[in-house]
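Quick note —
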Amino acid sequence: MNDDDLVRALGDIADDIRHGTEPLPVDRIVRRRRRRRAVVRGVGAGGALAAVGAVALVGAGVARWDPAPAAPDPLPTTAAPTTPLRAWPVCGDTVAAGDDLSLTVEVAAVEGHADGDVVARAVVTGAGATDLPAADPDTAVLAVLADGDDGHVVALLPARDAGAWGRDGDAATLALSGAPAACAGDRLPAGAYRAVVAVRTPDGIAVSDPVDLDVPPAATSAARPLVDPSVDRFALVEGGEYAPDDPGPGDLLPDGDYFATVTGADPGARTVTVDVLQVRSRDEVVAAELAAGREDPDLPLGFLVENQSERVRTVPVAPDVTVVGSCAVLPFPEVLALDAGAEAEMAARCRGTAPEAPSTDFWVDVRDGVVVQLVGQFLP
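Predicted structure written out below.
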């Protein structure tokens, strides 16, 4: 299936919406589920397979549908000076200790975390070390250095924001825990760094020897597996085995599975606009009604579909999106290479359950911020 098919498919969704019927009245929000069945047929001379009512649309080279994501802009960098500064660490500078200072700083431990936090422990020794915590709220700072010969400062974690002083005999201890403020960007990117702790002393800036600091990449949760297009999701909802996701109050559609009315499609921009519906199982509805002191509602079909918000969201569509029509009435008939026998077979099986116009209700599956699967769901 080529890229032109994908463009036509979204165009057909837009046409279906323009020529569709009016929205269902409120008294029909309880919807009967309809099972879909797919018949696998050969498509094209290349032998690719497609299910009746289902087609995988693969984009590879259409200019207006560039499947290659744009490379993110690199984080800006700050030029490092050629001469180390024996002064308080600031972004872009290199750091060096003053000579012949009465106090010595050592980083006893440092560890980076996937959430961007850095945990460190420093020890200050020498005459008057235990007097340091009361001297100045800006007495100490942890500086994260680029891992290289210049070692310029790329992030800072002040003790006044994330430090706790203590004592160990004649030594002062400093525990630091927090997210260093990156000099270029909001967050310190994952990678290998060096770290030092700088402390103000009566006779200069005492700086520890640098130690290695590794910041691991942020942990990512496993993506929700895609539901097979031939599976009746309403049956899973009835059985308590499946529930669509809640998109929350924002204008974006986070990763997840949603049941929605497709209200717009833009083939050129490679987007669809959706109005997310709420699907609740009978058990969930009954529990809510009884908790509110109302009677057990009559939901013989085991689920309730509601539209609780007028918010619409526009979402990008993946170049290799899978689009599945509902029952025999296909939203994209010219995209599917179906023989007359297959079409007649599906029409006979679904006759009496679908209107002439295709449904614009879909299961909308979003992964990594784009729609990867649109599964049509007929609702009478």
